[in-house]
């Protein structure tokens, strides 16, 4: 079995998202060069803005695509390295359980929701990074623990992820330059869309799933209500 066959059978969505993020980062290095304050922080504010980082002012001016592009843009080498390592290990768990297309939808909707929350609470700020979508993947696996209530393996992993989430959110409170509202929005979006999409039948409890789909739909709408408020 060659490498491509292994990827296709394993986690092609996760690998594909990592490739896209890395290619965007390399394109920014090629396009803008080292314009930031140091080699470790290569991009200036102007470069990030031109690349499509989240700007509430720009979104309100009609640049709606900035609610999507930020989840593929990173500020520093450390930023993209930490996010891609997390995405690799977490994404494989989510993709093996939820399936390929569900994982992609969770990633995109979580990232979008996190950006809506970020824009709502910090409309004048500029932010970027895959962490809004990554927090959504964490949320999706925690939702899975509710969907599949009698699986001790899933419960054990979800508990570990919950601990990591709490640690990260506490760190966000005290760290400088971290978009905590984007992370919270992504987390809520991931939980809601996971309920809405549910999981393949081999993991699913039909009696629970029916009601959780309704909860998920309401959750996705409510989680993005801030977008309506902004306009």
From TrEMBL:
Domain Peptidase S54 rhomboid: 62-198
Statement: the UniProt record of this protein carries the keyword Cell membrane: no
Top-level division of the source organism's lineage: Bacteria
Signal peptide region: none
Residue intervals passing through the bilayer: 12-30, 71-91, 103-120, 126-144, 156-174, 180-199, 211-230
Record's keyword terms, sorted: Hydrolase, Membrane, Protease, Transmembrane, Transmembrane helix
Biological processes, Gene Ontology terms: proteolysis
Localization: Membrane
One Pfam family linked to the record: Rhomboid
UniProt keyword Magnesium, yes or no: no
Record membrane topology: Multi-pass membrane protein
Main location: membrane
Cited Gene3D superfamilies: Rhomboid-like
GO molecular function, one term: peptidase activity
Family: Belongs to the peptidase S54 family.
Protein name (database record): Rhomboid family intramembrane serine protease
Organism from which the protein derives: Furfurilactobacillus milii
């Amino acid at each position: 079995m060659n490498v491509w066959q292994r990827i296709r059978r394993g986690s092609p969505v996760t690998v594909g998202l990592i490739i896209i993020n890395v290619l965007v980062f390399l394109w920014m290095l090629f396009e803008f060069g080292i314009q930031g304050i140091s080699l470790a922080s290569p991009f200036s504010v102007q470069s990030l803005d031109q690349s499509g980082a989240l700007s509430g002012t720009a979104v309100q001016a009609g640049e709606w695509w900035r609610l999507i592009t930020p989840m593929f843009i990173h500020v520093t080498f450390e930023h993209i390295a930490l996010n891609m390592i997390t995405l690799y290990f977490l994404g494989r768990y989510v993709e093996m359980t939820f399936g390929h297309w569900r994982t992609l939808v969770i990633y995109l909707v979580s990232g979008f929701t996190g950006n809506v929350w970020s824009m709502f609470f910090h409309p004048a700020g500029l932010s970027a990074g895959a962490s809004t979508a990554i927090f959504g993947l964490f949320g999706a696996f925690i939702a899975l623990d509710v969907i599949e209530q009698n699986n001790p393996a899933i419960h054990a992993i979800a508990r570990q992820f919950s601990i990591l989430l709490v640690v990260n959110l506490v760190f966000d409170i005290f760290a400088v330059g971290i978009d905590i509202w984007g992370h919270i929005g992504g987390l809520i979006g991931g939980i809601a869309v996971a309920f809405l999409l549910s999981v393949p039948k081999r993991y699913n409890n039909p009696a629970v799933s029916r009601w959780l789909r309704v909860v998920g739909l309401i959750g996705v709408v409510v989680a993005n209500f801030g977008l309506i408020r902004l306009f």
